[in-house]
Amino acid sequence: MRGRTVLVTGGAGAVGHYAVQLAKWAGASVVATASSEAKAARAREAGADLVVNYRTQDVAAAVRDFTGGGGVDHVVDVDLAGTSPSHGPA
Questions:
Q1: CATH code of the domain in which 20 resides
Q2: Which one in 26, 48, 60, 89 has a CA-CA gap of 20 to 30 Å to 5?
Protein backbone atom coordinates (compact mmCIF):
# COMPACT_ATOMS: atom_id res chain seq x y z
CA MET A 1 0.00 0.00 0.00
CA ARG A 2 3.00 2.30 0.36
CA GLY A 3 2.71 5.11 -2.15
CA ARG A 4 -0.98 4.53 -2.78
CA THR A 5 -3.96 6.62 -1.79
CA VAL A 6 -7.05 5.15 -0.16
CA LEU A 7 -10.43 6.87 0.19
CA VAL A 8 -12.48 5.71 3.18
CA THR A 9 -16.08 6.85 3.19
CA GLY A 10 -17.45 7.30 6.68
CA GLY A 11 -14.01 7.43 8.25
CA ALA A 12 -15.41 8.20 11.71
CA GLY A 13 -17.61 5.13 12.11
CA ALA A 14 -16.37 1.92 13.68
CA VAL A 15 -15.58 0.14 10.41
CA GLY A 16 -14.27 3.30 8.75
CA HIS A 17 -12.03 4.03 11.74
CA TYR A 18 -10.40 0.62 11.46
CA ALA A 19 -10.13 0.93 7.67
CA VAL A 20 -8.25 4.22 8.10
CA GLN A 21 -5.93 2.63 10.66
CA LEU A 22 -5.22 -0.43 8.54
CA ALA A 23 -4.51 1.63 5.44
CA LYS A 24 -2.13 3.90 7.39
CA TRP A 25 -0.36 0.92 8.98
CA ALA A 26 0.12 -0.47 5.48
CA GLY A 27 1.77 2.80 4.38
CA ALA A 28 -1.01 4.41 2.34
CA SER A 29 -2.08 8.02 2.28
CA VAL A 30 -5.67 8.15 3.51
CA VAL A 31 -8.52 10.46 2.63
CA ALA A 32 -11.65 10.00 4.74
CA THR A 33 -15.09 11.51 4.51
CA ALA A 34 -17.17 12.67 7.45
CA SER A 35 -20.34 14.67 8.00
CA SER A 36 -19.26 16.94 10.88
CA GLU A 37 -16.19 18.41 12.53
CA ALA A 38 -16.56 16.04 15.50
CA LYS A 39 -16.57 13.05 13.15
CA ALA A 40 -13.69 14.52 11.17
CA ALA A 41 -11.67 14.72 14.39
CA ARG A 42 -12.25 11.00 15.00
CA ALA A 43 -11.08 10.16 11.47
CA ARG A 44 -7.96 12.28 12.00
CA GLU A 45 -7.30 10.48 15.29
CA ALA A 46 -7.41 7.20 13.36
CA GLY A 47 -4.70 8.57 11.06
CA ALA A 48 -6.46 10.11 8.07
CA ASP A 49 -4.20 12.51 6.19
CA LEU A 50 -7.16 14.47 4.85
CA VAL A 51 -10.76 14.52 6.03
CA VAL A 52 -13.44 15.97 3.77
CA ASN A 53 -16.84 17.02 5.10
CA TYR A 54 -19.08 15.64 2.37
CA ARG A 55 -21.95 17.91 3.42
CA THR A 56 -20.03 21.16 2.96
CA GLN A 57 -17.15 20.30 0.60
CA ASP A 58 -16.75 18.86 -2.88
CA VAL A 59 -15.19 15.47 -2.18
CA ALA A 60 -13.99 14.94 -5.75
CA ALA A 61 -12.31 18.35 -5.88
CA ALA A 62 -10.65 17.82 -2.48
CA VAL A 63 -9.32 14.42 -3.61
CA ARG A 64 -8.01 15.90 -6.87
CA ASP A 65 -6.24 18.66 -4.92
CA PHE A 66 -4.79 16.22 -2.38
CA THR A 67 -3.53 13.80 -5.03
CA GLY A 68 -2.39 16.37 -7.55
CA GLY A 69 -5.06 15.14 -9.94
CA GLY A 70 -4.07 11.49 -9.66
CA GLY A 71 -7.16 10.30 -7.81
CA VAL A 72 -7.26 7.40 -5.39
CA ASP A 73 -6.02 3.86 -5.86
CA HIS A 74 -8.56 2.16 -3.61
CA VAL A 75 -11.94 2.99 -2.09
CA VAL A 76 -13.29 1.51 1.12
CA ASP A 77 -17.01 2.23 1.19
CA VAL A 78 -18.44 1.12 4.50
CA ASP A 79 -22.06 1.77 3.46
CA LEU A 80 -22.36 1.22 -0.28
CA ALA A 81 -26.14 1.04 -0.20
CA GLY A 82 -26.36 4.34 1.67
CA THR A 83 -23.80 6.22 -0.42
CA SER A 84 -24.81 5.03 -3.85
CA PRO A 85 -27.33 7.39 -5.48
CA SER A 86 -29.08 4.56 -7.32
CA HIS A 87 -29.27 2.22 -4.34
CA GLY A 88 -29.70 4.60 -1.41
CA PRO A 89 -32.62 4.63 0.98
CA ALA A 90 -35.93 5.74 -0.47
A1: 3.40.50.720
A2: 89
